[in-house]
Amino acid sequence: MSYDPANIFAKILRGEIPAHKVFEDDTALVMMDIFPQSRGHCLVIPKAASRNLLDADPAALSAIMPLVQRVAKAARAATGADGVRVVQFNEAAAGQTVFHLHFHIIPVYEGVALGAHAGGQADNAELAGLAGEISAQL
Ligand code: 5GP
Question: Distance, CA 102 to ligand 1 centroid (Å)?
């Protein structure tokens, strides 16, 4: 299967659709997930075009992992979460719904069940606040 540049994350990367941005440089964008599974759920998105891990350039993968770690630490510090899940889906059968490579950073709170994957939409003001708080910890 090939990469489709009409996917929603490609549109966000091109600035055609807004996002609650946590971080951006030449190689990556970090934004809040609009249907969060927990408070502080955000996404690390390499700018290089690939559907997922399976077709990604190994050099792009090694370049993105330090940022995945930084964002996981920043999300934990900003939210006071007890742990952090890092999740990444490859193809629809595995649960992938947006076909541009991304890593989920999902803060986990002791005794609080995670919401459904791509479930209810979060409040915009709350997402904007969290984006600022996580960004400040990077
Ligand atoms: P996947 O299932 O592909 O691993 O994850 C896609 C994620 O993107 C889901 O968690 C979903 O909530 C999120 N998502 C879908 N559409 C949008 C959008 O327009 N903006 C943002 N910020 N997140 C989105």
Answer: 9
